[in-house]
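User: structure tokens for this one?
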Amino acid sequence: MSKKIAFKTLGCRLNLFETDSIASEFSKNNYQIVDFSDKADIYVINTCTVTSMSDQKSRRVINQAARRKKDGITIVTGCMATNYKEKLQDNENIDYVVDNDHKTSVVSIAEAHFNGEIVNDEQFQRDLFKYEPAKDTFHTRSFIKIQDGCDNFCTFCIIPKVRGRASSRPVEDVLNNIRKVVEYGYKEVIITGVNIGRYNHEGTNFEGLIEKMIEIPGDFRIRISSIEPDGYSESFFRLFKHAKLAPHMHICLQSGSEEILLKMRRMYTAKLFKEMALKLDEMYPGFSLTTDVIVGFPGETEEHFQETVEMAKSIGFGHIHTFKYSVRKGTRAERLPDHLDEREKTRRGEIIRVLSDETRLNHRKSFIGRTQRVLVQIILENGYARGFGEHYIPVIIEKQNLDTNKFYDVDIVAINENDEPTLIGKIRN
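Assistant:
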């Protein structure tokens, strides 16, 4: 009887890519993948540590696995496993702790365990890119890792500690990964990494890599995930004219205050960010731009915060992911003066969340009367289909008997104004 394995992924799309690849490898080795809430022989938890809340979620999931595993094993990997490796190794609920550098060894560690061998992750070679293209994943889209690590060292960020310095995957490995998942039948690939805009391998930069990607034949589209605002030129923006490249980016703002951006050690100005956003909207009306904002950074006054509010209003983001500043041990921001209390951070976070709801609704309403190329992801109980258009906005198609993982041209006729405003569309005649 094949062994059962369950996965839980916390945090970013990079973690999702890595979990998908690991799970696919287990599947090739005849392991049965089950839901994390089910009984399993192996529980693999891919953790996040970007905030204190991330740590709490990771600990909670580890405890859940401990209550279910009986004679099974728990393998904890990811950023929290890297940041608190020694501490987690002392946790009796965890059998193996695997850091990010050795995450590709998870399958080998599990196999060795059930063969009666005693191993640890450091016995295996460090390899950030030894991930096979995932055929069987937890998603209808395929995540493609092009890069890892970061050299920016923002004062609030622990990622360079847990992911290391910036490193880029070889160009042909990236392109072959895309070709393979397209061959598997995936219709959308999402480009991910820690700081993908800084991709550079043997003279090919991020723009050059995207140019090579869109030349790959096949009926699929490419979506750029979270990216830093590194001052992209119009030549990069022109790539969005290509049908394969989705008109959507998640570009991290963090603050609309020039002073706070300097304290954060961000590599851009609020002025540059705004100019870039307005240029995208000028070139591609309705371009979907989402972002991250940190509220309550040390020294952030009410005036600084209002600068962020005004920036968000002027740009009209499709969505704003809001984070309360969280102290990360060992970062420069930890040592900054004038830390804000939690109540004030919560108040500011709520203001941004309300504003995000407003701008998101207005942005999505602007698509009524337009056409979206929707990739169907699921079939609803009423038989209608749900998926995402090229602008990364959810769409319900009012027609039954449609197929998942297939593109449809859809005329947007209305919007469902619930907690997650969803466009309503009809198949274009």
